[in-house]
Amino acid sequence: MRYLAACAGSCAVYLGLGVLQTVAAQTTPASPNANPASIAELPPVTISVTRTDGKNFETPASVNAVDRAQIEDARPLVNISEMLGSVPGLVANNRGNYAQDLQISSRGFGARTAFGVRGIRIYVDGIPGNSPDGQGQVSHIDLGSAKQIEVLRGPFSSIYGNSSGGVINVTTQEGGPDTVATTSLSGGSFDSYRVAQKISGATGAFNYVLDVSRFATDGWRDHSAARKDNLNARFGFKLGADTQAVLVLNRVNLPDAQDPQGVTLAGLANAQAVPPAVLTFDTRKSTLQTQLGLDINHRINAEHSLKLMGYGGQREVTQYQSITLGAQTPPTSAGGVIDFERDYKGMEGRWTFKRNLTNGPLLLHAGFTADRLKEQRRGFENFVPSTTINPDPLCINGSSRLFTCGVKGRLRRDEDNNLKANDQYLQGQWWPSSAISLHAGVRRSSITLESQDKYIVTGNPNDSGSVAYRGTTPMLGVLYNLNDRVNLYASWGKGFDAPTLNEIAYNPDSTKSGLNLTLKPSRSQQFELGTKLRLATNAYLQAAVFRAKTEDEIVVLSNNGGRSRFQNAGGTKRDGLELAYDNQFAKGWKAQGAYTYLRASYTDAFKACFSTTCTGTQGVAVAAGNLIPGVPKQSVFADLSWTSDDGGIQAGVEWRATSKVTVNDLNTESAPGYGTMAARVSFTQKVGNWTLREFFRMDNLLNKSYVGSVIVNQASAQYYEPAPTRAWLLGFVGSYKF
């Protein structure tokens, strides 16, 4: 808590500067020699994630946006977590493990997942980053060409259907009007480097951005090396005065990213080391994803417009896990290697209607989405019989036979999964007066899964089956404009989270094969009250209090040997407070702050399986009132930056602090709270057609030892993923305008 107290004090200072400035501006006569342009005015933030295409200040929802200047401000541009600290309510942890995706949760939704992003919708230029089942990932997001990142939380998430936590919406830069070529080079601690080449421009009715990059690292921990290649292309076409089209192509390749896994509490003493099984089984993961999308917008007349979006892609994943030989040998086991290929596609159609109704404008959206996924999922043993006397690595089973581990062996699982998702939605906004805006929406979601088992042997019966999930998610919101500086709002909505393919992948009884088709969707109800304040032309404060109640919460039943099994618990409750603050409080100076208080707890008791040998209906009682693991009660972010008059020098320091985080449903262990500081500086020069920028960054400036993320309910108590020690980054960016 001392970290939070220190950081809260810094935020209070920043806020105090803004309030004092506001008071001074309102009470002190202007000097005849004063320069009103000496302090930059904060520009209004325009958002699209709510589909109203309006200003954030006029939206009855918790939305925060990160612009291009913040994205590229002396950052590695590798993980989206780098720039999301300023968003309250959102936890975005970099595991330092590229075999797993970032750990992202919104208001406590998605904290349980040990892989990918859960409960949050991801969009890049209007193209979904989630599979039709709701499972998302962010590795394909190209930060080198990102223009803005919007984060929506709370009841407004209902308009996106199968996600209760919120929405992350990324838009790519548009090319033009000039042709610009940009080369980026950076390198730093742990033999990490990133090289990128971007070219953008426009000619006539066509504009383009093409960005390719490679990132590689040996990793701070043992067995954590990785390489990541990204390609992102955006092509814009103006097909007429009223028709525009955008074609988006992105590709990500992570070949053999090593997986260091978590460690026990005792293992934190030697945080760089990994459990022995990691090396024995050579835990790692490879991912290849290619995706193409086309978005067409057509204005019929002043009142009517149409949108049509289509996309398709393929994702291939192979993951080697550290499952003991004994656990891989039963006929019901799926082995120790996960191997799947997914082909997916989808489309969205939307009609928009605008007209003045009585005293104010009316905006209506009606649309549908249709998504399809075909998956071939297979499992293999992570060992083969040894053909040498001293194989490396060496595995010995109970009969003292020798095996080589970390090698794909016999087939142990083979199934085809077909998933269909069909949604319809209606959303509207109306201003009955200049002071009040009303918002409403409803979405109907239908998800159907069919699984055909092709691995049928003695002891492993035919596990084919099907299941359907349906949900209706309404939303209501009202905003009241008290005056030019104060907006008040209230919103309510229902949420729906269907089980993902990963969550139903394994039978809840570890002695049986097949899918977990008994898992039900979780359903939530959310309330939010908030205010958006212009403290001055150069200071902005956003505050919200909220409550979310969930029934049939999907929770971890057991998490061991690379197998996460899930079940429905009873009810949960999430109560919280969020604050976000921006202030240009002096010439060249800017302060940002964010604070989150969140108590996420179980309201009903249930049983969970915390032993590696737990089977069937066995379990340990989890008491009502226990905290949901993986969710910190408090987190604080503060950033202070300075820019010289000519923009040639930029410098800043940031502070992040998080309270302790429980790691299991029993609340018997916690990751300690921490505070960490980073500093950065950059220099920009313009020489002819060249714009040159050099930057230096130091993370974990005080060299703190802390836990960066946790693996919820890990059965071997390997809950903790240690964060890196002090790390430096040096970079160069050169742009040439043709």
Assembly annotation: single chain
CATH topology: Maltoporin, Chain A
Large-scale geometry: globular
Taking the alpha carbons of the first and last residues, their distance comes to 53 Å
What can be said about this structure in brief?
By secondary structure, this protein is mainly β. The chain has one domain (2-26, 42-167, 191-260, 274-283, 295-737): Maltoporin, Chain A, CATH 2.40.170.20. Helix content is 5%, strand content 54%.
Question: Would you kindly provide a written description of the structure presented here, covering whatever features stand out?
Answer:
By secondary structure, the chain is mainly beta. The protein has one domain (2-26, 42-167, 191-260, 274-283, 295-737): TonB-dependent receptor, beta-barrel domain (Maltoporin, Chain A, Beta Barrel), CATH 2.40.170.20. The chain is built from four helices and 40 strands. The strands form eight sheets. It has a 22-stranded antiparallel barrel. It has a five-stranded mixed beta sheet with strand order 1-6-7-4-5.
Essential attributes:
738 residues; mainly beta; Maltoporin, Chain A; 5-stranded mixed beta sheet; 4 helices; 40 strands; globular
Strand-helix topology:
Elements: H1 2-27, E1 62-67, H2 68-71, E2 90-93, E3 103-106, E4 120-124, E5 127-128, E6 146-153, E7 166-172, E8 180-188, E9 192-203, E10 206-217, E11 226-240, E12 243-258, H3 276-280, E13 284-299, E14 304-320, H4 325-328, E15 337-357, E16 360-380, E17 383-385, E18 394-396, E19 402-405, E20 411-433, E21 436-453, E22 465-483, E23 486-497, E24 522-536, E25 539-551, E26 554-560, E27 563-568, E28 571-586, E29 589-602, E30 606-608, E31 620-622, E32 634-643, E33 649-658, E34 661-662, E35 670-671, E36 674-687, E37 690-699, E38 707-710, E39 720-722, E40 727-737
Parallel strand pairs: 4-7
Antiparallel strand pairs: 1-6, 2-3, 4-5, 6-7, 8-9, 8-40, 9-10, 10-11, 11-12, 12-13, 13-14, 14-15, 15-16, 16-20, 17-19, 18-19, 20-21, 21-22, 22-23, 23-24, 24-25, 25-28, 26-27, 28-29, 29-32, 30-31, 32-33, 33-36, 34-35, 36-37, 37-40, 38-39
